[in-house]
Design brief:
Blueprint: E1 2-10, E2 16-25, E3 30-35, H1 41-48, E4 56-61, E5 64-65, H2 68-71, E6 74-77, H3 89-99, H4 104-117, H5 133-145, E7 151-154, H6 163-178, E8 183-186, H7 190-196, E9 199-204, E10 207-212, H8 214-221, E11 223-230, E12 243-247, E13 250-255, H9 260-270, E14 272-280, H10 283-291
Parallel strand pairs: 3-8, 3-9, 6-7, 7-8
Antiparallel strand pairs: 1-2, 1-4, 4-5, 9-10, 11-13, 11-14, 12-13
This protein binds adenosine-5'-triphosphate (ATP).
The site of adenosine-5'-triphosphate (ATP) has 12 residues, from α1.
InterPro entries: AAA+_ATPase, ABC_transporter-like_ATP-bd, ABC_transporter-like_CS, ABC_transporter_ATP-binding, DrrA1/2-like_C, P-loop_NTPase
Domain ABC transporter: 2-230
Membrane topology: Peripheral membrane protein
């Protein structure tokens, strides 16, 4: 298990980027790390990787502080992508595999498999600089995955990928997680995180404001009432709690408060009620609430 406790980081100049960040990523868990721009995700991951020193707090793996040797067995995709631009794709992935201690033959086999999985086989002999940004991103991912890491830490691995590549990467990460690897990744794609992750951590201004499974966070957020009324009279929802959206001749009211029976009576009186039901909060709604 990866355990992060009480991380604090103040940058020269005074900015407190992390103010007591802590969470755990268990074996076999896909953990989505989400937060607004500047919330502290990259800083946290850099500290885990030893690229940056924290002022306080601890990072431990399997109950012991993470050391340089263990970090070699981590697959890391940094925010600042680092590839050799002139080197060919397959050669580069193999090279990084060997840097992590793989034999040439093992690195070649793993590279071929990843090229296939990330649909890069046709580009295997191209120099990295000749690839589109999305394809460079796939190479960067292959580099993080090639040595069959014990733990994966990926800073925005899905950004810039097309939908096919998003699916391919999702499958690869799910397989690694099912094999027992804890996978920590940051993302701004909340629908993807909600669909993919076993657990989610929300960071805001250097502090964790929510962490747990999507189901737990949804249960804590409570359910929202959604009412759709066709042909409703203007002003029918005046004074009712929640947000009203008008889509053509449909009025959609979403609320997590108020007297549901009173809302139903008002809706029936004002028009044709097409939908009346309780819905679970989406991760986007939970996120907005948590960082508000
Ligand atoms: N080297 C640095 N010197 C000073 N401030 C920094 C430095 N690196 C990061 N910061 C600040 O620390 C805060 C956290 O930054 P960080 O990059 O961790 O955020 P993030 O959650 O990864 O954001 P994004 O989603 O935009 O990538 C920000 O206010 C940022 O400006």
């Amino acid at each position: 298990m990866l355990e992060i406790t009480g991380l604090r980081k103040q940058f020269p100049g005074g900015k407190v980027a992390l103010d007591g960040v802590g969470f755990e990523v268990r074996p076999g868990e896909l953990y989505g790390f989400v937060g607004a721009n500047g919330a502290g995700k990259t800083t946290t991951m850099r500290i885990v990787m030893g690229v940056l020193l924290s002022d306080a707090g601890q990072v431990s793996w399997q109950g012991r502080p993470l050391d340089a040797d263990t970090r070699k067995r981590i697959g890391y995709m940094p925010e600042e992508r680092g590839l050799y631009q002139k080197m060919r794709v397959a050669e580069q992935i193999e090279y990084f595999g060997q840097l992590h201690g793989m034999s040439a033959a093992a690195a070649r086999t793993a590279t071929n498999d990843l090229l296939e999985r990330l649909t890069l086989t046709e580009r295997r002999n191209d120099a990295v600089e000749a690839l589109s940004l999305g394809n460079q991103q796939r190479v960067q991912l292959a580099v993080a995955l090639v040595h069959d890491p014990e733990l994966l830490i990926l800073d925005e691995p899905f950004s810039g990928l097309d939908p096919i590549a998003v699916e391919a990467l999702s499958t690869v990460l799910q397989e690694r997680a099912r094999g027992g690897v804890p996978v920590l990744f940051s993302s701004h794609q909340l629908e993807l995180v909600e669909r993919l992750c076993d657990a989610v951590g929300i960071i805001s201004a250097g502090r964790m404001v929510a962490t747990g499974s999507v189901e737990t966070l949804q249960a804590a957020a409570g359910r929202a009432l959604k009412v759709v009324v066709r042909g409703a009279e203007p002003g029918w929802a005046d004074g009712l709690p929640g947000e009203l959206a008008v889509q053509g001749d449909r009025h959609v009211l979403v609320t997590s408060g108020g007297d549901d029976q009173e809302i139903l009576r008002r809706a029936v009186k004002s028009g044709h009620v097409e939908h009346f039901g309780f819905e679970r909060a989406s991760l986007t709604e939970i996120f907005k609430e948590a960082v508000a």
